[in-house]
Design a protein that fits this description.
Blueprint: H1 4-7, E1 14-16, E2 33-39, E3 45-52, H2 60-87, E4 93-94, E5 100-105, E6 117-126, E7 131-134, H3 135-138, E8 142-145, H4 153-160, E9 173-178, E10 189-192, E11 195-198, E12 204-213
Antiparallel strand pairs: 1-3, 2-3, 4-5, 5-9, 6-7, 6-8, 6-12, 9-12, 10-11
Organism: Pelargonium dichondrifolium
Protein name: peptidylprolyl isomerase
InterPro entries: PNSL4/FKBP13-like, PPIase_dom_sf, PPIase_FKBP_dom
């Protein structure tokens, strides 16, 4: 409650010569108090301040609960745009390199620097939608030096940018579609006994979340 309500609300008893009380603009602040007319022995009316009406105040528990509700609502409102962006179908942009990309969530942090040790989560899928690998399932992001050839070329290009692809920013989420030459090419990956987890000449889809430097 503002201290003004107390400083301006104190009413001083005064005599009023007319039969009706007059309340000026300053006296209007005294409406927080109960007032009543009393007739004095001389026959004049006096406006007398009675007991103060204590305003209703919320308890500490109610105030904390209200603050928590506001914070929760704000968090939900902030999450909704990002969740809606991720749920929206992603329209891929084809770059001159053959790499197609789409930003589901644009990052807010710095971009990666070539040779920097970074962390990224990902889900890898074949063109038919079959998931062949996921760092989320392992509960641990991939750590590697970007641009140093430690991962397939499509990953370096998709995160660092170049050849018509903008660099990713930390906190961003991007879908990458890699042609075979930017993926595992003719050799495939995870091959054993004539069967490959990633068959040769496969087009690959990756949902990449660039967390930031490691």
């Amino acid at each position: 409650m503002s201290s003004t309500a107390f400083s301006l609300g104190t009413y001083i008893t005064r005599n009023i010569s007319s039969n009706r009380p007059v309340i000026n603009s300053f006296d209007a602040t005294a409406l927080r108090f109960k007032s009543q007319l009393q007739k004095s022995s001389s026959g004049e009316y006096q406006l007398v301040q009675a007991a103060y009406e204590k305003p209703t105040l919320c308890t500490r528990r109610e105030a904390i609960g209200f603050g928590f509700s506001i914070a929760l609502l704000d968090a939900i409102c902030q999450q909704q745009p990002a969740e809606a962006a991720e749920a929206t179908p992603c329209e891929l942009t084809l770059s001159p390199s053959g790499l197609a990309f789409c930003d589901k969530v644009v990052g807010y942090g710095p971009q990666a620097v070539k040779g920097q040790l970074i962390k990224a989560h990902y889900v890898g899928k074949l063109e038919n939608g079959k998931v062949f690998d996921s760092s989320y399932d392992r509960g641990k992001p991939l750590t590697f030096r970007v641009g140093a050839g430690e991962v397939i070329k499509g990953w370096d290009l998709g995160i660092l940018g170049g050849e018509g692809v903008p660099p990713m920013l930390a906190g961003g989420k991007r879908t990458l579609k890699l042609p075979p030459e930017l993926g595992y090419g003719m050799r495939g990956a995870g091959c054993r006994g004539g069967s490959c987890i990633i068959p040769p000449e496969s087009v690959l889809l990756f949902d990449v979340e660039f967390i930031g430097k490691a």
